[in-house]
Amino acid sequence: xxxxxxxxxxxxxxxxxxxxxxxxxxxxxxxxxxxxxxxxxxxxxxxxxxxxxxxxxxxxxxxxxxxxxxxxxxxxxxxxxxxxxxxxxxxxxxxxxxxxxxxxxxxxxxxxxxxxxxxxxxxxxxxxxxxxxxxxxxxxxxxxxxxxxxxxxxxxxxxxxxxxxxxxxxxxxxxxxxxxxxxxxxxxxxxxxxxxxxxxxxxxxxxxxxxxxxxxxxxxxxxxxxxxxxxxxxxxxxxxxxxxxxxxxxxxxxxxxxxxxxxxxxxxxxxxxxxxxxxxxxxxxxxxxxxxxxxxxxxxxxxxxxxxxxxxxxxxxxxxxxxxxxxxxxxxxxxxxxxxxxxxxxxxxxxxxxxxxxxxxxxxxxxxxxxxxxxxxxxxxxxxxxxxxxxxxxxxxxxxxxxxx
Length: 405
Ligand SMILES: Nc1nc2c(c(=O)[nH]1)N[C@H]1C(S)=C(S)[C@@H](COP(=O)(O)OP(=O)(O)OC[C@H]3O[C@@H](n4cnc5c(N)ncnc54)[C@H](O)[C@@H]3O)O[C@H]1N2
Ligand code: MOO
Known about the structure:
alpha/beta; Molybdenum Cofactor Biosythetic Enzyme, Chain A; Molybdopterin biosynthesis moea protein, domain 2; Molybdopterin biosynthesis moeA protein, domain 3; six-stranded mixed beta sheet; 28 strands; 32% strand; binds ligand LQZAQKY5; binds molybdate ion
């Protein structure tokens, strides 16, 4: 039986990025760039002013204060009409092209202005406050390498080079199928013995949260016919995630019917709790995740196994959440022989993560999952991890390190 890291590596070794598509620049934000972006021109395109002030010749300002005659004005977006002659200055705004003859810009705060003339009152160094042609980016330089996650700075760079359409890795289309005769859909009243199909929705939310596109297949009932029909539909997507029907019950048909449909089972059961009965298979190049049905186990196994794979399929390089060190606040007991993921509430205290149990750790307890924002790893052979011990912690929510105000 693989450990959870072995299981995750087995999965990651089998999935590869999907194809490439070109999308509008805003649509590209949050996606992964699929080709290097090379600068088609240099940036900036010409020498320009970094300050609102005056274009001068530094040599004219060797003695301070220096009186200079103002002979012109160049606003941002304006054109250069003449050169800076000796003993003169041209009023210039930030971003405006530099006139010939000028080798420094004096900020307006370092001058006294009496209309037609100015007095420069602070020392001037040659080249000061000038943004030089090509100093940021040279023509032909790779400004964003393939594999970069596109965020606002990349959007700015792409826009600066006129890239309205951006090559990105395709979004994974992820089929989600729940199984079980006990399920009713949201909107139908649950009666004793029935439960609302929440796994489809939590999985769809999780799929969407990692940037992929959920395709809801619905519910396969506990018979082979229904499984065949729904699984066939699910296998058309880039990846298939099923929930429930993978443990030892006499109606746990998922693995069996998947095998019948040509899905090669790569592993079944992982040395961990929750999520022990997880199965993983491949249908050609498509990954098939068969997650256990307990809503907590479904979410934890999505997080540990499906999310990294979907991220890799969408071209991400950073696909695995890291473990950080945390101090456990209370004793945590477990059965030796399995790694346990304890659902914890994480706080940051004096710069350190502190993990406190989020409540009853039975896998049927959904409330504990709702309260948790991290998973603390309790090692295989431990039967108790004492309060005050250091544990490996995986943060599950991006707002863990944000402060309330
Ligand atoms: N004899 C054994 N029994 C069980 C084992 C085992 O190893 N031997 N493993 C237990 C563990 S651990 C888990 S986890 C569950 C997983 O079982 P399945 O994946 O086969 O899931 P089900 O039994 O069908 O359902 C489990 C639980 O989850 C609820 N559920 C199912 N689907 C949904 C859904 N779409 N939305 C909300 N809740 C759902 C279902 O009603 C059950 O309560 O098996 C243990 N048993
Ligand atoms: O996946 Mo089962 O919940 O280990 O509890």
